[in-house]
Amino acid sequence: MKNDVPVSEIMTKNIHRVSLSDDLATAESLMKKNHIRHLPVVENDHIVGMLSLNDLLRISFADALNSNDEEVETTVYDMFSVEQVMTAKVQHINSQTTVTEAARLFLKSEFHALPVVDDNCLTGIVTTTDIIKYFLQKEQGD
After folding, report:
1. Which tens digit of pLDDT belongs to each residue from 43-89?
2. Are 48 and 91 in contact (CB under 8 A)?
3. Is residue 29 included in any domain, yes or no?
4. 98 and which of 4, 46, 61, 126 could share a cystine (Cβ 3.0–4.6 Å)?
């Protein structure tokens, strides 16, 4: 695609994240409070995993999608750690990866968020929603 831009232009740079020492209730609360579905798991600015709302829903009856309540029921979460629930082998891209390349990765994969890593440090996150917004805005601009 002509004039394709790097994901650095559409990615979220102010990244909400958790560490291996955080608990799952904290993670769900962060997702609810910020209306997000993916949290990079980071240790010393290095990504070690990705935790999604689907991961949390898989182990609980959390009503995270429809609840405006930021309070989290922690009974089930107390039985698991972030490390046990997260996806550990996370594919990532760098900030110069084009939006089209990222879209192709999403099409052939089963995930909906890609961490953006430069010099081994997490610098952003791009989601399928970011990609869709980009192409819709581009279409309206043409």
Report:
1. 988 999 999 999 998 887 654 444 555 555 667 888 899 999 999 98
2. no
3. yes
4. 4
